[in-house]
Design a protein that fits this description.
Distance between the termini: 28 Å
Structural class: mainly alpha
Low-confidence stretches: none
Number of helices: 3
Order of helices and strands: HHH
Largest sheet: none
Number of strands: 0
Strand content: under 5%
Oligomer: single chain
Length: 75
């Protein structure tokens, strides 16, 4: 049974107060871009050297699709 006043009013637990944005909100988006660039410039050549061209291309496509889907999914 809910004992807090907010829970009795029907408020959803665990919600943050709206209206405040983080100080470095722009950094949150751009570190993902930097991660993607690093994976392409470092990860694909290493995968190509270790596993061959087909595996590197298929793995890169699957990883890119997964990351793009996670980053653009509605919250």
């Amino acid at each position: 049974m809910a004992s807090s006043a907010a829970a009795k009013r029907g408020a959803k637990p665990g919600r943050k107060a709206a209206g405040r944005t983080p100080r470095f909100a722009w950094l949150h988006r751009w570190w993902k871009v930097a991660l993607l660039v690093a994976l392409v410039t470092i990860g694909l050549p290493v995968a190509h050297a270790l596993f061959g061209e087909i595996v590197a291309l298929l793995g890169g496509a699957v990883l890119f699709g997964f990351l793009l889907g996670r980053w653009t999914a509605p919250r």
